[in-house]
Amino acid sequence: MSRIKGVFATLKGRRAALIPFIAGGDPGLSATVPVMHGLVRAGADLIEVGMPFSDPMADGPTIQMAHQRALGAGATTRAVIDQVAAFRRDDGRTPVVLMGYVNPVETMGYEAFAKACQAAGVDGVILVDMPPEEAAEWRDCASRAGIDTIFLLSPTTPAERLATIGAASTGFLYYVALKGVTGARHLDVADVAARLAVVRAASALPVGVGFGIRDPRSAAEVGRFADAVIVGSAIVERMAAKKPIDEVLADVEGFVRDLRAALPERASRMSS
Length: 272
Description:
Elements: H1 3-11, E1 17-23, H2 29-42, E2 47-50, H3 61-72, H4 77-88, E3 96-100, H5 102-108, H6 110-120, E4 124-127, H7 136-144, E5 148-149, E6 152-153, H8 159-168, E7 173-176, H9 189-202, E8 207-210, H10 216-223, E9 228-231, H11 233-239, H12 245-262
Parallel strand pairs: 1-2, 1-9, 2-3, 3-4, 4-5, 6-7, 7-8, 8-9
Helix pairs in contact: 2-4, 2-12, 4-6, 5-6, 6-7, 10-12
């Protein structure tokens, strides 16, 4: 059983998984592994690590600036993969998903990228600008390397396309709860819950909800019905604080601990 599948199997019927996002290499490469370990100490069940890119079109200003800080600090796709490998020296349990854009992966080559991820202990990859209709080559490389391919769903995804995306995905589905970019606000929890019922009718995969979850309260609300709660911009904002890195990491760890404490336990079975 893969690490991602194992997490969802373990938490099924208990609570939503907590998935924090950080930008790899932000504010410097030396911070990436310590913050990943801090996230685990704080209760993260799975970690998403962003691969730096110069034109992160799906992201709002907060994460765009994180990409720029990471690139300015010398981060590259391969350097972020190396950070995952360093994390794996002390943590062989926590799933790690890389999230990024197609261009740097195509530059490296799908097969080379998949093999590098496999060697480093990456569990899954989200390429936000790769539609499933154009993903056959990548999916084949990822499958051979034992890496899950995770696709995004949005509030505007047509019902007839949900099954196509679900069939192309492994690991879990990432539901974008808002129309817009990362960091957007105005989350309508009731609307998200209704939409997830439609998604689950089309796919048996777990569904993680991201975009718009910014604090323990919104995490708790979404955690009542989602299989995973994904928090990005609110964490990255803390990484950008202009204070000593030890204080930044402590702040991030404390915030994620509060998110984890807010997730409700539940007796009913979760969708798988």
